[in-house]
Specification:
This protein has 503 residues and is of the alpha+beta class. It contains 19 helices and 14 strands. The protein has five domains: 49 residues, Arc Repressor Mutant, subunit A, CATH 1.10.10; 54 residues; 170 residues, Ribonuclease H-like superfamily/Ribonuclease H (Nucleotidyltransferase, domain 5); 68 residues, no CATH class; 99 residues.
């Protein structure tokens, strides 16, 4: 019975003075309904309608007993059990009934109040992909939030390896200007080797980082994101506010780096926080003095890889190859990499340094290393000839390197260029070589053409080279120093001309 029907029956009976028969006729209902409505002093409760018996009704007690014994028992298993007692209904009916009577399994959370400088929460978030050169790389963001002030630090990375995790934490603490007492994180591979929560076995390198900055590590239980809900919400905030709708702006990797700084300082930390009702930067002024001062030396967060230099004078790191000098061929070396630089060390000595490449399958070369490699690959090489030519200067070495990459006889061109240096002089030949290098033309004949053009521009005669029958005998020729008076006797002097005129 509806409340509206109950109210109309009472009105017709008390105000209009109609009989129960007349009310039933006017409302089109049963006389028993009218009688029952008049007996009720309060409106009927629709939620307390009498339930009709179903095929499942005889098994309610059995189902209650099963759930009391195993609260997590599935509806499928309950259906199997009651079918043994004769139930022939559908599983859907059981599922609906179990959903109504099963004890709630949700957790009740207690609000946590944080003190200034007490804790910092950190977590990763996945942010799609970015194209670097001809490779697509996954983009992640590490978010660190101070629990009291809600001041946040974000940093985009191209992986979630432990080196990136440690480096980002170090950058976050440098940004905050101090370290809180605790760091709260979930089951990250970079921090947790096994277990979770209080039983977590932490990575020794992560413990070293925490010890360096006097942080107490607090690992959350597995599949319990609510225990660090503050940073979880901030990761969603980064995705929905900082990244959403910026597909046209985030073209290259540097765009992500610039966005992290701009959005952090101009949006995230200066907005009015919904929970605290204050701006994080204003609230941080109160928290700043409660942070522990950072050590003078930052933590060592470089990624370190031990490897052996290949026969091609290269080492592999992060999907790329970096060149090394020839004296470490086949020797064990250590590769140390930060966000921008890759260094190669042998026995504690730095032997190579390169700018880090975030592409894949690239070969990063140093011109000097490549020249050494080309020399070693050449079996029959003229050591003296190459060393003499390289000694001319930096322009000669660069020309030599490019010359060896071309399908020509290198020794022929080097020998011819050395002859030009003896004929025209070292300075002029180096200038012509540098000009040929600028024009991307590597040929001794072209260098000689440039020299001749320069001589003509200066209106100087072209030198004539000596061409002895046997070149090796040129050093054995002993010439007496020239006497200029010979020319006077041939052409006559001014005094002789005067005597002639007197006569």
């Amino acid at each position: 019975m509806k409340v509206s029907q109950w109210a109309e029956i009472r009105r017709l009976h008390e105000v209009e003075g109609l009989s129960q028969r007349a009310i039933a006729r006017q409302l089109g209902c049963d006389r028993g309904t009218v009688k029952k409505a008049l007996e009720l002093d309060t409106p009927p409760d629709p939620s307390r309608r009498a339930r009709r018996g179903t095929m499942l009704s005889p098994y309610h007690d059995k189902i209650a007993a099963l759930l009391a014994q195993s609260p997590g028992l599935s509806a499928v298993r309950i259906t199997e059990e009651i079918r043994r007692d004769g139930y022939t209904g559908s599983e859907i009916t059981v599922r609906r009934y179990v959903r109504q009577i099963r004890p709630p399994r949700g957790r009740v959370y207690q609000e946590v109040t944080w003190q200034p400088g007490q804790a910092m929460q950190v977590d990763w978030g996945c942010c799609g992909k970015v194209r670097i050169d001809d490779t697509w790389r996954n983009v992640s963001v590490l978010v660190a939030v101070l629990c009291y002030s809600r001041l946040s630090y974000i940093e985009f990375t191209l992986s979630q390896r432990k080196a990136e995790f440690y480096r980002s934490i170090d950058h976050a603490l440098q940004f905050f200007g101090g370290s809180p007492r605790r760091i709260i994180f979930d089951n990250l591979k970079a921090a947790v080797l096994g277990g979770s929560g209080r039983d977590a076995c932490l990575h020794p390198e992560f413990l070293a980082l925490c010890g360096h900055y006097y942080l107490e590590p607090i690992a959350c239980q597995r599949r319990d994101p609510e225990s660090k809900g503050m940073v979880e919400a901030h990761v969603r905030y980064v995705k929905e506010n900082a990244l959403a709708g910026r597909g046209d702006e985030l073209i290259c990797w540097d765009d992500y780096r610039r966005l992290a700084i701009r959005w952090r300082d101009e949006v995230a930390n200066v907005r009015k926080h919904q929970t605290t009702g204050e701006r994080p930067v204003d609230r941080f002024e109160e928290e700043r003095e409660h942070l522990r001062a950072l050590p003078q030396l930052p933590a060592d967060t470089d990624e370190i890889v031990s490897t052996v230099v290949s026969d091609h004078l290269r080492v592999r790191f992060d999907g790329n190859q970096y060149s090394t000098p020839s004296d470490v061929k086949g020797k064990p070396v250590m590769v140390r990499a930060d966000a921008d630089t890759v260094r190669v060390l042998h026995e504690g000595r730095e032997v190579a340094r390169h700018r880090r490449c975030y592409g894949k399958r690239k070969v990063i070369r140093d011109a000097e290393h490549e020249l050494q490699a080309l020399r070693l690959r050449k079996r029959n090489r003229a050591h003296h000839l190459e060393a003499t030519f390289d000694a001319l200067g930096e322009a000669a070495r660069a020309f030599h390197l490019e010359l060896q990459r071309r399908p020509v006889k290198t020794s022929h061109h080097l020998r011819r260029l050395l002859d030009l240096a003896r004929l025209y002089g070292r300075a002029d030949v180096l200038a012509a070589i540098a000009r040929a290098h600028e024009l991307n033309t590597y040929d001794a004949a072209y260098v000689e053409t440039l020299l001749l053009q320069e001589r003509r521009r200066q209106e100087l005669p072209s030198p004539v080279p000596l061409r002895p029958a046997r070149r090796e005998l040129i050093d054995e020729i002993d010439l007496e120093p020239s006497d200029p008076s010979v020319y006077d006797r041939l052409f006559g002097t001014q005094d002789e001309e005067e005597e002639t005129n007197d006569q």
